[in-house]
Structures
1.
Amino acid sequence: MQEELLFLEEQKVDNNLIRKVEDFRKEYMVSENAKERVTKPSIPFYGKEILEMAIAALLQGSNLLLSGAKATGKNILAENLAWMFGRPSYNISFNVNTDSSSLIGTDTFRNNEVQLRKGSVYRCAEEGGFGIFDEINMAKNDAASVLHATLDHRRMIDVPGYERIGLHPAARFIGTMNYGYAGTKELNEALVSRFLVIDMPALSEENLVRIIRHDYPDISQEALQAFAGLFLDLQLKAQNSEISTKAVDLRGILSALGTVRIGLKPWQAAQMGVTNKAFDIFEREIVADMVMTRIPEEWTKEQVFG
Ligand SMILES: Nc1ncnc2c1ncn2[C@@H]1O[C@H](COP(=O)(O)OP(=O)(O)OP(=O)(O)O)[C@@H](O)[C@H]1O
Ligand SMILES: [Mg+2]
């Protein structure tokens, strides 16, 4: 089996799906100038069911919307999908400055003539790339109208002043969005209707352990249990609405471990990575207690990295 697909086999992803991904890889080549965009993600995505849903959706030609809380692996999943399907990826971040011309292209004056400087959606369409629409719910109307046309069954892009272009058969789009926090926007129904949607689940203990081990292979068993346990405690308390989701942050846990490796005391590291993310004073007290029960104040680096 190809190296890119081994992590699927390791997680016992349905073999039939893996074979179809292999076929897809064989069917569509990547052009020379897009090769550098086929990039290996920093970590495999862990989560068998989610992988199966995502793979099946893309195989049948759908676009995929990944919704969920922060640090639930939305971007990591999108990058892994592009990698396993062997496609160049194009990251397109939506913010107040993203308009239709930044997606499709703009006219520029070059060699004494007006030429189209192709935007990332254009290039993705041409190369059969996987376009990752990051924070797609932040798209302004002007950008959203490009998405409406690009993402529906016609698979066409209107380039004002030029010919309309069709999407390469291997091109797919994967949107990511955060929701449910203050400041996050909803996505309008017509746009949602152009995607199959995956709601990113809470992390299981098994996958959490895999992620921590991947980043810190030399972590001690005791510390692994302490830090994973702390994250799971926080996740559960937030699910039960006893705390908000502010301190439930896998990035915080992983970075905290990084500072411990450098030599910081584990309880200090946990303050930065976990406790201080809860800005509400009452909530912070609850979180601080949870940290204390898992990560003894007297621990040093040696308890964590033997
Ligand atoms: N299922 C998973 N498999 C592997 N890594 C994961 C997984 N879930 C989270 N991670 C870890 O969490 C980090 C954050 O993941 P990612 O950036 O994909 O999150 P996100 O959902 O896009 O978050 P945000 O909404 O804040 O942008 C990754 O670098 C990775 O270490
Ligand atoms: Mg993200």
2.
Amino acid sequence: MNIIVTGLLAAEVSTTSAEVAEPSSLNLLLWIAFPYVAIATIIVGLVWRYRYDKFGWTTRSSQSYENKIMHVASPLFHYGIIAVFFGHILGLMIPETWTEAIGLDEHTYHMLTLPLSLIAGAATLIGLIMLIFRRRTTAQVFQRTTKNDKVMYVFLGAAILLGVFTSWAASGIFDDGHNYREDVAVWFRSILIFQPQPEAMASAPAYFQIHAVAGMLLFCIWPFTRLVHVFSVPLQYLMRPYVVYRKKSPHRSGNRTTRRGWEPTRTD
Ligand code: HEM
């Protein structure tokens, strides 16, 4: 266990903390208190929502009102955001030292992940823009859009837009770029293992900090929005037996008398 913890915090932390002064109160608030408040809110909030609003736990699908744009926008957004999710796991959870240990130097790592990251980010953003356009321009869908949905779109849109900007900026499109695996990722893991390193995040460029705050704000509202559907992926559908639909033929019922309520309906 200790080896894993040491590995997760990795050597780069000691260099980071040695170079940076004591974090200010704002940094302590943003990079220790806020992350734990966000984690607690999402866990407690989901339990609360499930207990008190089990039947409201839904995507509130609007597919029956409009399917043409939805047919393209929804897969684009969902496949994009799933790829972004796995990108976050890879980038934030796997220490630089581990990829170096298997012979992948930092330059090669970024050359391999950059194209995937840019494609995933672009797909998510374009998908989201199309979904919002559809929601605004299809009257039936817009009528069924609640205040809660609008607030959710603002928070989700902000996290995604800032994320894509962060990804571009980190890749060096605007300047020399930045290796977030040496500060943001170190801070992120330090929170998860309850050994917070606020100074690691405090020394990261502002665009990473703003994106992380937007991400944590989204976590705080998550349980109270339709985003709860993310936690109800119907995985049992892959394993359950098929539901067999058969036409009831009059020749199949044999001599049995028809039970009350099961009389065949006329279809002609
Ligand atoms: C504390 C929470 C979060 C942290 C520390 C974080 C950190 C990061 C980092 C370091 C990147 C740059 C990745 C790269 O260049 O490859 C990134 C990109 C991104 N993030 Fe986050 N993020 C967080 C939460 C979120 C949330 C909640 C969302 C949206 C639901 C989100 C959406 C994105 C998107 C869309 C990108 C662009 C990815 C790409 O271009 O492939 N992030 N994030």
3.
Amino acid sequence: MTLFRLDASIMPATSASRALGDIVEQEWATAHPESAVTRRDVAADPVPATAWQNAVLGGFTPEADRSPAQLEAGALAKTLADELVNADALLFDVPLYNFGVSQHFKTWYDLVLTDPRIGGAAELKGKPATLVTVLGGNYDDGTPKEGWNHSTAWLVRVLQDVWGLDLRVVERSFTLVGVDPALNDFTEMAAGLKSDAEEVARKSGRELAELRGAAS
Ligand SMILES: Cc1cc2nc3c(=O)[nH]c(=O)nc-3n(C[C@H](O)[C@H](O)[C@H](O)COP(=O)(O)O)c2cc1C
């Protein structure tokens, strides 16, 4: 058994997404102590920003005519795709940055999608997966910045609808409470959101470990 785990926090030492990912992984490890974990940290080891265009243009070019950069990008896409294809379950830990998707995750996603097994075929369809995402603020209905979180919906769209993963989502808002004094009024609410997210992470980890459908 193999779990693939991707992390995207730029501040791993204090990372809330990593902490929730650790809970999911712990449940997996308890059920599958012999399991391997394939780790991909797209913030510590970013996919080069030029790799995607090189892989796309290389795909339009006969193999014998591809530039060294195009061949290298294609090889990296294959390595990244192998990690997904060879895993039994997938875990993605991705924070919100600048009201949008982590650039590191997007760059990774775009490149891995150039591999024909990921972009063209239904290779990942039905694979159990968990998305952990964390938001510094709170964008729930009725909040002043409702609608400003342009990350979670896109992440769910591409993982669940484009790749067809059997996806569960663990989302924790208000991780900046306790960091930004302007949010001190929300201390109690944030503590509740944190423990709720931890419970969802435990449940999600158990489901992943059982390779059970998100809907069951
Ligand atoms: C450069 C930067 C930009 C951020 N932008 C946003 C943002 O637009 N909205 C938000 O709610 N939180 C934002 N945050 C807060 C992060 O989402 C929050 O700190 C989160 O917990 C980071 O993930 P991590 O704890 O796993 O590192 C930002 C944080 C950093 C460092």
